[in-house]
Amino acid sequence: MPPKAKSTYYDSNWEKEFNWLVPLSTSNKHGHCKLCKKDINLSNMGKVAITSHAKSSAHEKHVKSVSNTIDLSEMFAMKETTNKSLFCETNTDLSKRAEALWLFNMVMEHQTFRSASNSAICFQIALLPRTFPWAMIKLAI
Fold this sequence. Notes:
Layout: H1 14-17, E1 21-23, E2 30-33, E3 38-41, H2 47-55, H3 57-67, H4 72-76, E4 79-80, E5 86-87, H5 91-108, H6 119-131, H7 135-138
Antiparallel strand pairs: 1-2, 2-3, 4-5
Helix pairs in contact: 5-6
């Protein structure tokens, strides 16, 4: 009778080296790539299976796309100055945040772009007075 093959089990220490790796809840012989959303069988090759997955073209493409994105929580985070008051760095920064929040709301509420055709006026009223106080007079508010 041949000896029983040795299996490799998930090691949480691998998460330090591969920050995209998480354990699979259904099996202790598998890991899961958060970027590719793919399960990695560790039972035969162990850590070599993880490094093999990391070198795959599909995984490298996912790593590249993630490195070019901005986390939404960073976009809406307020910045702190030395005197401990919170502010947005620039009016452009404020505009980007307002647009992103508006777009996020449209997606969550399942609105169409056509239904938001008057939103440009709302942005002018909301943002221009901060940038140009005289805009309040021109917009007849």
